Amino acid sequence: MNRYKFLFITTIILAAVFSRLLPHPPNFTPIAAIALFGGSYFTNRNLAFAVPLAAMFISDLIIGLHSLLFVVYISFAAIVLMGFKLRGKRSPLRIGLAAVSSSVIFFITTNFGVWFLGSFYPKTIDGLLACYIAAIPFFQNNLMGDLFYSTVLFGSFELMRRYVPVLQEAEKTS
Q1: N or C of the chain: less Cβ packing under 10 Å?
Q2: What is the mean pLDDT of the chain?
Q3: Which of 143, 121, 142, 117 is nearest to 132 (CA)?
Q4: The pTM is what?
């Protein structure tokens, strides 16, 4: 990956992370879209994880750390892996399906963490179901945010790639 492409991708990710600091509806954030985008475009697998996770960590230092950070980052890493599957096969449909899948992964993982690690819900099947049911309104915002930010991230990069020759470097899918 040439350095211009690296800098552009990193800048897009940092801009999305910055949007976490602006007022927004609950869970309408770029979290999954950043992971999906990083996994899809960074040819170096270490960078695909490091840049989005580091950017998230920096914004979490500003927003505030919490006890479920590990669970959020695990779901984030799983979404980066999903982004790897998009490499060389990106289309609006595939990106949309990956964004929806990202929302589902985030919802299942983080709410299981809330139930398992927290004390608000009893450690029973009924408690787990109650946790997931209570989180449904947040899932709607999460899904809308993931679709919106995936469109912005993938769309802006593809648009720029059409007009900026240095960004048109052929992709390596290792």
Answers
A1: C
A2: 91
A3: 121
A4: 0.88
